[in-house]
Amino acid sequence: MKNCTNPVFTTTSTNNQGEGRTFGSYYVHNNMWNNDNGTYTLGACNYDNWYEVAKQPDGTAVRAYPNVHKDYDDVPLSRIQSARFAANTPRCAGCIYNVAFDIWINNNFDNELMIWTENWNQRPAGTQVGTTTIGGKEYQVWKSGGVNSPGGIFTYVSVTPQLSGTMPLQLFFRDLEARKWIPANSTTWQVDYGVEICDTNNTEQRFNFTDFAITES
């Protein structure tokens, strides 16, 4: 397995202005959008080989989402088929985080689809509305906010941790359409994969991301 030991880009920040680096059509982002006294160091060897070293005091709110993503300009969801992924996480005592895909849908980030591949002591937004099986994997299904309107967050939490594989994104889009949570002609603005960090028990913890690539039709 790849492990980024000689990064071509590094950045350390303690504020909400986390930097990033473009690698071809992908962007690796030290996204500290809600930091509270945490320190975040991102090192990237490539878009599919990077790490985050985080030290975050106690808390349950999401403080940062370091990620790799690809931007789109209102591209039909039907174009996005799947994505390879792989991550190695610390699973530390007292830590709270989730490793997840984060996909922004319709009209400049109206709705948010999250697919949690690993959950470590975190609770999704909203209410659990059931379970479903997609691509042979079982997921809890959570919903927060509007359906077919701005502000809706739809979260699929893998019951069994998925540390690597190929995520069948198109099947999730079809499930959202079948539930009538998004229109059949929906579009996407961004596809992300990274870790939502709430708490590292005020200790330095390293998260390694060692594969990522989006397949389009």
Written account of the structure:
By secondary structure, this protein is mostly beta strands. The protein has a single domain, classed as Jelly Rolls. Helix content is 5%, strand content 54%. It has one helix and 15 strands. The protein has one helix spanning 169-178, and strands spanning 9-13, 20-23, 26-29, 39-46, 49-55, 67-76, 80-88, 96-105, 111-120, 127-134, 137-144, 153-158, 164-167, 187-199, 205-216. The protein has a nine-stranded mixed beta sheet, covered by helices on one side. Strands 1-4-5-15-7-13 form a six-stranded antiparallel beta sheet. A hairpin with an 8-residue loop joins strand 11 (137-144) and strand 12. It is globular. It starts with 8 loop residues before the first strand and ends with a strand. InterPro entries: ConA-like_dom_sf, GH11/12, GH12. This is Glycosyl hydrolase family 12. Keywords: Carbohydrate metabolism, Glycosidase, Hydrolase, Polysaccharide degradation. Belongs to the glycosyl hydrolase 12 (cellulase H) family.
Protein traits:
nine-stranded mixed sheet; 1 helix; globular; 217 residues; six-stranded antiparallel sheet; Jelly Rolls; mainly beta; single chain
Task: Produce the secondary structure layout.
Elements lengths: L8 E5 L6 E4 L2 E4 L9 E8 L2 E7 L11 E10 L3 E9 L7 E10 L5 E10 L6 E8 L2 E8 L8 E6 L5 E4 L1 H10 L8 E13 L5 E12 L1
Parallel strand pairs: 9-12
Antiparallel strand pairs: 1-4, 2-3, 3-6, 4-5, 5-15, 6-14, 7-13, 7-15, 8-9, 8-14, 10-11, 11-12
